[in-house]
Amino acid sequence: DVQLVESGGDSVQAGGSLRLSCVVTGTFTVPLCMGWYRQGPGQEREEIVRIPRNGLPRYGSSTQGRFTVSKDNAGKSLYLQMNSVQPSDAATYYCKASRSWDCPSASSGYWGQGTQVTVS
């Protein structure tokens, strides 16, 4: 099966930067559809960015221009560079992977346990 582990969550000052990582292991064929999502306290899960299997990132509107997604050449690690972090970015950040061509938030897939980002 497929397992995902996120890391890099931390406490960051407003205006600062942070880089999240997600490593995918298990049995699968690359490329996977992969993406970053977040959920703040009392909020619904929000899609930040996803990369369908065509490799073209699709960003959500709330973070575009501040957050940048990247993948390693092997297609087994996903990164999220967060710049100009705002208090509204505080949330648990989740990585998702799917064998489907595309993987919007509500679609089926594999999820990591999440990594916490706090903003002071």
Strands, helices and their partners?
Blueprint: E1 2-7, E2 11-12, E3 18-26, E4 33-39, E5 46-51, E6 58-59, E7 67-71, E8 77-82, E9 91-98, E10 110-111, E11 115-119
Parallel strand pairs: 2-11
Antiparallel strand pairs: 1-3, 3-8, 4-5, 4-9, 5-6, 7-8, 9-10, 9-11
The fraction of residues in strands falls at over 45%
Helical fraction equals: under 10%
Shape: globular
Order of helices and strands: EEEEEEEEEEE
| Biggest sheet statistics | 7 strands, mixed
Quaternary organisation: single chain
Q: Helix count?
A: 0
Jot down its keywords:
11 strands; 120 residues; single chain; four-stranded antiparallel beta sheet; mainly beta; seven-stranded mixed beta sheet; globular
Structure description:
The strands form two sheets. Strands 2, 4, 5, 6, 9, 10 and 11 form a seven-stranded mixed beta sheet that branches. This protein has strands at residues 2-7, 11-12, 18-26, 33-39, 46-51, 58-59, 67-71, 77-82, 91-98, 110-111, 115-119. The chain is built from no helices and eleven strands. The mean pLDDT is 94. The protein has 120 residues and is an all-beta fold.
